[in-house]
Amino acid sequence: MFVASLVGVFRFKDLPEKYGPFVQHKALLEKKTIDDEDQIAIVNIAGTESNHVLFLDSYKNVKEIMEELKLVDAELNYNSKKILEGHL
Asked: This protein's superkingdom (predicted)?
């Protein structure tokens, strides 16, 4: 299992450009329209070149995020988990 670490939580309008393609891809998969003020968390999967996008308004709690990450064989590290709990 890979370790997932929070890169940051951004409003869409403040999202660093390098994460744009990841966000657009996830929005397309979820058929989601993104607003400038949407809160988006970017999680890096250690040992890979992959970033996982989390649209924070799609989750009720961190447990749901952890379940989603299990599907990509990743586990959220402790500090990232605590930070995301504060955003939800």
From this structure: Archaea
Angle at 62 between CA 18 and CA 29, to 5 degrees: 45
| Cβ atoms of residues 67 and 19 within 8 Å | no
Q: What are phi and psi of 27, to 5 degrees?
A: -65, -40
pTM recorded for the entire structure: 0.93
| Full pLDDT tens readout for the chain, 88 residues | 999 999 999 999 999 999 999 999 999 999 999 999 999 999 999 999 899 999 999 999 999 999 999 999 999 999 999 999 999 9
Residue 19 in contact with residue 50, Cβ under 8 Å? no
Q: Which domains does the chain show, CATH number per domain? A: 2-87 (3.30.160)
